[in-house]
Amino acid sequence: MGIWDSILPGGGRRFIKRKDSDAGEAGRALEELRGSLYNDFHTSEGARRQQQKLCGPIVALTFNFVVAVGIIMANKMVMGAVGFNFPVALSLIHYLFAFALMSVLKALYLLPIASPSKSTPFSSLFALGAVMSFSTGLANISLKHNSVGFYQMAKIAVTPTIVVAEFILFKKKVSLRKVSTLVVVSFGVAVATVTDLEFNFFGACVALAWIIPSAVNKILWSNLQQSGNWTALALMWKTTPITIFFFIVLMPLLDPPGLLSFSWDFKNSSTIIISALFGFLLQWSGALALGATSALAHVVLGQFKTIVIMLSGYLVFKSDPGFTSLCGAVIALAGMSVYTYLGMKESAANARRNSLNSRQNSHLKKAKAIVDGENPETKPMDSV
Predict the structure, then answer these.
(1) PANTHER family annotated for this entry (predicted)?
(2) What pLDDT is stored for residue 229 in this prediction?
(3) C-beta of residue 320 within 8 angstroms of C-beta of residue 196
(4) What pTM, to 2 d.p., does this model score?
(5) Residue 91 located in a structural domain
(6) Residue 28 located in a structural domain
(7) Which residue, 267, 278, 277, is CA-closest to 81?
């Protein structure tokens, strides 16, 4: 201490204590920051709040729309240029890639896997993983054996299926104005795609078998995230192994033979990996959109993607879908605009109702405290 006394006469001890105090405050601040980050990303409530904060309905739907357009181009390269005609095997590769990527994120502590598993029965997770495999696999097989127009016609049937299923399962009702708007949207999409209805008997059977799993898949994803406090990635982490298992079972039944004899050179493998990356992003963005909106909103988004792609081909690439298809596209876009407006109006009304209910509950608690003889503005002190 002699050196410190000579440099800082009479203040050496105070300087060291102040440094120790600053170090202690910095350490406490660091611990608080670490605790806050842990609560934000490694607990179900914190991760759910961060997902809602960073990925609202508009961001989630936009993200899903962009990725969906990208995977259409990637899968066209896989099925066309590469010649990989194994739709269920391609879906299996997508989910294996997604599980491997999530495993890396988990190992780096970047995956918020904490989940309220005690409140969600395993049967719900198993059902979601099973219907997801059937929905994805049957969709790819339908696209292989049917034209895009017939695939979209089958997708229109998903909308009333969701309305009926949500009413049966959760007693959820849809307003008459929304039902009318959905009818207009479905009619517009049907008119826009009616000129491209190429299919065969097997393809038609696959398309019809795909409708119910697709509707149930969207309903379960939306319901589990909104009522079960799940995040998109946490739910994907739990259900992806189940989906992979069902893909392994379905692959020899629905895929043609010849997978092992496929030319797995660098070019083909790279194209399939790019498709798998888009597949992971599509699954993630779709889960985010379903958690932020609803199953019906996600179906309307899918129909919006169809119309936008068709109009883009007409405006950018000078394709000629025909006057009838263009009229149907305009009708569908008008119906989607009205549906979006009604959804935003309904969400604002629900927010105001929830705010009013919270204020009323607060007033009731204060009134009860006054009746019980307590001052609501003060808290009783513990006697020493």
Answers:
(1) SOLUTE CARRIER FAMILY 35 (PTHR11132)
(2) 73
(3) no
(4) 0.69
(5) yes
(6) no
(7) 267
